[in-house]
Design brief:
By secondary structure, the chain is of the alpha+beta class. Helix content is 56%, strand content 13%. The strands form 2 sheets. Strands 1-5-2-3-4 form a 5-stranded antiparallel sheet, with helices on both faces. The two termini are 36 Å apart.
């Protein structure tokens, strides 16, 4: 049976422990404001985790960490385009660009970091659907939740301190290099990597992206530098160019489809309607919004939404088929027959 609730009433670590003790298999979906994440279980152990719109795709992470060059990644992606059934990770190993052990280690870190990031979500909702398995992924791990819970608890405690100095990821810092050099203090490898990127232009998120480090490592490094008085804040990054809102559209689309696939139809409708607001002629968004309304039994709204989708040419047969179903449920049999 499905398990649903609020993160205010049951913390995510408590939910993980419950699913682990019950040896559950399925998908735990978590929402927090406009963010969406999922943790997949196989007989009580975590086998995969992801956060929608999190910028940690395998190829990009490998390039940023120095494991691959951009040219090698581009060549692998081109080869994958010719043979789409081959997963990128397998292809990189086949081409001799990575060892299997190194690939597995990198993806395990990605999955664990996604779980640790989800532990910081203290508001929102969760929904566990049993017997679901991940769609095809590059790699599935098998991690005991208690190991994740111990490390996650430590990080959450440290984040509460880090956030006092680094309250947001759009803050831009600069470093007093003269004072840092004069101090003679020994920096950790993470602090050295961060200092090289502090240029009064990059915000915290850009430092994460460019350093190849995870958010926690960057936050901890910045916290140490700020506490020692080597950093000063110079401002915040500018929002994305409003004339090119494609990234915003894709963010809402990805969230909408993730909600739709996990049966959270009200949330899917909310996100897909935002896509429609930004892209009125987006037929796919209207179609899936219509399907979500059908699942909720909102026949009239579903019919209106799907009817609008049929006006965007070329409309697929599935749009008319579902429109006919909505019309039938409304008792509009002649209109349903016309749609069919």
């Amino acid at each position: 049976m499905a398990i649903k609730g609020s993160l205010k009433e049951a913390s995510l670590p408590d939910v993980l422990q419950l699913l682990s003790l019950g040896n559950k298999t399925g998908c735990l979906s978590i929402t927090h404001r406009s963010n969406f994440g999922s943790i997949w279980f196989d007989t009580g152990r975590v086998c995969f985790a992801s956060i929608v719109n999190r910028r940690d795709r395998l190829g990009d992470v490998l390039v940023k960490s120095g494991r691959l060059t951009q040219a090698q990644l581009d060549a692998a992606i081109a080869a994958q385009a010719r043979d789409p059934d081959v997963r990128l990770g397998d292809l990189l190993v086949r081409l001799g660009l990575l060892s299997r052990e190194l690939l597995n280690e990198q993806i395990r870190v990605q999955i664990e970091e996604a779980v640790y990031s989800l532990f910081t979500w203290t508001e929102g909702t969760f929904n566990f659907e049993p017997d679901l398995r991940p769609e095809r992924q590059d790699f599935l791990v098998s991690v005991r939740p208690d190991a994740l819970l111990l490390e996650g608890a430590r990080r959450v405690d440290e984040w509460s301190l880090i956030e006092k100095k680094i309250p947001a990821f759009d803050i831009i810092f600069d470093v007093d290099r003269r004072r840092l050099e004069a101090s003679g203090v020994a920096l950790t490898s993470e602090q050295q990597a961060v200092v090289r990127l502090l240029d009064a232009r990059r915000d915290v998120q850009q430092i994460v992206d460019d350093s190849g480090l995870v958010e926690f490592e960057v936050g901890k490094a910045l916290y140490g530098l700020a506490t020692a008085g080597f950093l000063h804040r110079v401002g915040t990054s500018h929002p994305a160019d409003p004339k090119v809102p494609e990234a915003r559209v894709e963010e809402h689309r990805n969230l909408g489809m993730a909600f739709f696939k996990t049966g959270m139809f009200a949330e899917a409708i909310r996100e897909l309607r935002r896509v429609i607001e930004l892209r009125p002629r987006d037929a796919a968004a209207r179609f899936h919004a219509g399907l979500s309304l059908l699942r909720l039994g909102q026949w009239a709204e579903a019919a209106d939404t799907l009817r609008a989708a049929t006006e965007l040419r070329p409309a697929k047969g599935s749009v008319f088929h579902n429109l006919a179903y909505a019309l039938e449920r409304l008792g509009l049999y002649e209109d349903a027959a016309a749609a069919l």
